[in-house]
Amino acid sequence: MRRDLDRILIDRARIAERVREMGVELARQLEGELQAEGASPDEAGHAVMIPVLTGSMIFVADLVREMPMKLSLGLVAVSSYPGKSMQSKGASIASELPPDLAGKHVVIADDILDTGNTLALVKRLVLEKKPASVRVVVLLRKILPGHTPPIEADLVGFEIPDEFVVGYGLDYDGLYRNLPEIAVLRPEAL
Length: 190
Ligand code: IMP
Ligand code: MG
Prior knowledge:
Bound molecules: inosinic acid, magnesium ion
Radius of gyration: 17 Å
Strand content: 25-35%
């Protein structure tokens, strides 16, 4: 696996530190909103984290363990990059949304905001369920010259240049998700 890498863009220590900060910040915001609804910290409702599969699974596994609060997880599957494609083909939803989002504080989490099509779709579908609030959280935000995405993330781990990256959940043709760093592949590996 490592011989396919051109270089490491973000190492394990930087990812861990940033994900910890993001979890603490997100929990602080959500707890604030839950308590503003009047309930005491003990009886306050809970937030719902919606990881967009499959790319977000490693990020979310680390993120939620940095969030000391009541939280439920409801997965959603979206397909946008079939096979060896490196260009989003437009997102389509491949599973139901989790039930009972009405009135809840919802966090949609994904590995990367690239064209933004995936997250725009998921957010639109979540909003139809009339949640109390919706946030979009991504580990990476790719800066595409001349492109304004249809959606912005409320919390971003790292901004990266317009390069195809793998690792920490992100794949190329289904592989490299288990790499602990964020890396760029050698052209020969593509
Ligand atoms: P978008 O709809 O173009 O924003 O792309 C969203 C999905 O494409 C993400 O959830 C990723 O799974 C995938 N994706 C986008 N850029 C990359 C990349 O550089 N490496 C691996 N997957 C990517
Ligand atoms: Mg994905």
